[in-house]
Amino acid sequence: MKHVFIINPRAGKRDRTARIYDMADRLRRDHGLVCECMLTDRPGGATDMARKLAETGEALRLYACGGDGTAHEVANGAAGFPNAAMTVIPTGTGNDFLKNFGPDAEKFADVENLWDGEPFPLDLIDCNGRLCLTIACSGIDAQVADSVHQYSGLPLLSGRGSYLAAVAANVLLRPVGSRWTVWLDDERMEDDFLLVSMCNGRYYGGGSMPVPEARMDDGVLHTILVKKVGRGKFARLFSAYSAGDYHLLPPELVRVSTARTVRIQSETDIVTCLDGECFRSREAVLALSDKRLNFFGPKECSPNATAR
To answer: How far lies 2's CA from each of 86, 87, 108, in Å?
Structure first.
């Protein structure tokens, strides 16, 4: 079996490449493992690397070394290959995916806790042929994710602070809500929506948790729909939405569905965000990709550790 570290040297505020190379050397020295380090040099590069490695048919353990974007790319390359399993070593500014593992999230920083962990399957979300680990969001939350990088370099702002600054800027300075046609399986709705977010995992935006009962391996996806509201009401609703208390919000404005397929259509561009990676389209089709990815982590860890 080969252990391959796919490193994003641009992730985070400091280049952690040397640290990852040291981890690989330690596995070779202490455990006699076959290790290789590869550096990404462009967006999408980690996906191409992971897929080419998996296509060889060789037994692989892939380590996504970066933030949520790097994990997203490696997952897209490794998904569907029974010979490949992946994990994450967090070196980025955003690591929402690992929050799903609760107290064990900290253990992912040390490869000694990872290399011999037992693989287990994870569900994914398929959105227009792209795969998502945690949350696929369209609407105001995707617009926020698309602009959060503009605030991450400002003094005193990082992680959650950057996200909240982007929320404020988008709500105050841009139109809030869009006219969409949304299908939940065969049910059709046409309305003004603030957001439609499909959840496999529980965290995005630096720690917001819209659907706390979402589990990453149960074959069920939870989609939360929020209709358009005024800026003042949005400000009052946001904290409950972010804390996973959607049941406290007005049912005429907020709904949660377990539809297997969700389709969103618009006459203007829809911004959709998958694990922090954004794209635009006039139609977004989201569906369960059941048990698509092999994942490994610390012994006895659970991707549902924080689920309610």
So the answer is: 12, 14, 19
Average pLDDT over residues 243-251: 95
Q: Percentage of residues in the chain with pLDDT exceeding 90?
A: 81
Question: What would the mean pLDDT of 193-204 be, rounded to a whole number?
Answer: 96
CB 69 within 8 A of CB 276: yes
CATH number at residue 82: 3.40.50.10330
Please check whether residues 94 and 173 belong to one and the same domain: no
Which of these ranges, 42-51, 98-107, 168-177, 215-224, has the smallest mean pLDDT? Answer: 168-177
CATH code where residue 194 lies: 2.60.200.40
The span from the CA of 273 to the CA of 96, in Å, is 14
Backbone phi and psi for residue 283, each to the nearest 5 degrees, phi listed first: -145, 130
Contacts of 20 (CB under 8 A, 6+ apart): 5, 7, 37, 63, 65, 89, 91
Same domain, 284 and 158: yes
CA distance 297 to 198: 24
Q: Regarding beta strands 254-257 and 222-227, do their DSSP bridges make them parallel or antiparallel, or are they unpaired? A: antiparallel
Mean pLDDT of 3-10: 96
Q: Which among 117, 112, 13 is positioned nearest to 66, based on CA atoms?
A: 13
The mean of the pLDDT values for the chain is: 92
Kind and range of the H or E element at 262? strand 261-274
Average pLDDT over residues 191-208: 95
Rounded to an integer, what distance in angstroms lies between the CA atom of residue 211 and that of residue 197?
A: 10
Q: Which of 97-101, 108-112, 139-143, 270-274 has the lowest mean pLDDT?
A: 139-143
Q: Is 124 among the domain residues?
A: no
| Closest listed residue to residue 223, CA positions, set 251, 196, 191 | 196
pLDDT at 156: 44
As a whole number of angstroms, the distance between CA 156 and CA 121 comes to 39
